[in-house]
UniProtKB/TrEMBL annotation:
Subcellular location: Endoplasmic reticulum membrane
Protein name: UDP-N-acetylglucosamine transferase subunit ALG14
Membrane-crossing residue ranges in chain numbering: 20-43, 164-184, 190-212
Keyword presence, Endoplasmic reticulum: yes
Length: 310
C-alpha cells in the first residue's frame, strides 16, 4: 500500500500597510509616553539643579535669522494653552508679525501661511478668543497674521492635579490622537507652543516629523520641518514651568524663549551642551521698534545689567 504524506502549510500572515502604520505609531507613542513619565518622575528629584545663584554672569544668545533668499511661506502651527497662556500667545503672535512686516516693508502678504491652531478639546474659551483675534486682525489697518487655515481640538495629555500613573494613559491617548494632525494634516515648518501639557504631544510628533523629513538647502541655509519654539509664561520669573522643564529635559526644542534673565541661569545649572534658551526681548526692542539684526552681546549685557539694577 502506498503511504500518503500530507504536508501542512502554515497560514500566511497578511498585514496591510495601514495596520503596520498603526502598529508603528502605537509603538512610537508608547515609547514617547513612557519617556515623558520618566522625565516627570525625575524632575522633582533633580529640582536642586534649578536653584538660582546670585551674582553670576547671565548669558544670552542671539536669535536665529531667516535667510533673505528663503521667501517661501512658512507652514505654522500654534498651540493655544488655554487661559492666560492663550492671551500671551495671541499677544506674541501679533507683535511678532508686526516685526516681520516692518522689516520687509510689505504689509500685503504674510509669510506665516497656512496658519493652523491647536486647542484642548475642553477649552471653549480659547476658541472664542481666537475668533475675536481674527476679527481684530481683519479690521486692522495693517494686515498682520493671515486668517487661520484650521483649528484642531485634541485631548489633554494631563489635567491639573492628575496623578502621574493615570497620566500615562491620557498622555498615550493624546499622543496617538495628535499624530495624524502633525504628521499628515499640517506638516508644519514652525511650531509655536506655550503653557500646559497640551503642547507636549504636538512637540513630540514635531520632533518625529523633523527626523523623518529631509533637510532642504537654500542658498547655503538649512531648512527643515518641525522647528519647535517654546515660549515660557511671563509669570515664570526664576524657574521654568513643569512643561518647560519636560521639554528642556527632552532636548527637542530648537529654542526656548523666557521673559526674565534669572531663568537663563538654568543653562549653567543644568550644564546643557546645547544652549537653546534666550530672552524674548532679543526679538522685539522695548521701544516698540522692530529689529531683525542679531542682537550683540554688548547690548544684551547692558540690558541685563539695567534690569538687575531695577
Amino acid at each position: 500500500s502506498k503511504t500518503t504524506i500530507e504536508i501542512l502549510h502554515a497560514p500566511t500572515l497578511r498585514i496591510s500597510s495601514a495596520t503596520m502604520l498603526i502598529f508603528i505609531i502605537l509603538l512610537i507613542s508608547l515609547a514617547l509616553a513612557v519617556r515623558v513619565v520618566i522625565v516627570l518622575a525625575t524632575i522633582n528629584k533633580g529640582d536642586s539643579e534649578f536653584r538660582q545663584r546670585e551674582g553670576e554672569t547671565i548669558r544670552s544668545h542671539p536669535p536665529p535669522t531667516r535667510s533673505s533668499h528663503d521667501n517661501r511661506p512658512v507652514k505654522t502651527l500654534v498651540v493655544l494653552g488655554s487661559g492666560g497662556h492663550t492671551t500671551e500667545m495671541l499677544h506674541l503672535l501679533s507683535s511678532f508679525e508686526e516685526v516681520q512686516t516692518l522689516n520687509s516693508g510689505d504689509t500685503s502678504t504674510s509669510m506665516y501661511t497656512p496658519l493652523s491652531y491647536i486647542v484642548a478639546s475642553t477649552d471653549t474659551t480659547s476658541i472664542n478668543r481666537l475668533a475675536a483675534f481674527d476679527q481684530n486682525t481683519a479690521n486692522s489697518s495693517k494686515l498682520r497674521l493671515p486668517k487661520h487655515d484650521a483649528t484642531y481640538a485634541i485631548p489633554r495629555a494631563r489635567e491639573v492635579g492628575q496623578s502621574y500613573f493615570t497620566s500615562i494613559f491620557t498622555t498615550l491617548y493624546s499622543i496617538l490622537y495628535t499624530a495624524n494632525i502633525v504628521l499628515i494634516k499640517t506638516r508644519p515648518d514652525l511650531i509655536l507652543i506655550n503653557g500646559p501639557g497640551t503642547c507636549l504631544p504636538v512637540a513630540l510628533w514635531a520632533f518625529v516629523l523633523r527626523v523623518l523629513s529631509p533637510t532642504i538647502n537654500i542658498s547655503g541655509k538649512r531648512r527643515t520641518k518641525g522647528k519647535i519654539v517654546f515660549i515660557e509664561s511671563f509669570c515664570r520669573v526664576k524657574t521654568l514651568s513643569l512643561t518647560g522643564k519636560i521639554l528642556w529635559k527632552l532636548r527637542i526644542c530648537d529654542l526656548i524663549l523666557v521673559h526674565w534673565p534669572e531663568v537663563l541661569q538654568l543653562e549653567r545649572e543644568m550644564k546643557a551642551e546645547q544652549k537653546k534658551m534666550m530672552l524674548i526681548d532679543s526679538f522685539i526692542q522695548h521701544d516698540g521698534n522692530a529689529s531683525s539684526d542679531v542682537a550683540s552681546s554688548e547690548s544684551t549685557s547692558e540690558y541685563n545689567a539695567s534690569k538687575k539694577d531695577r
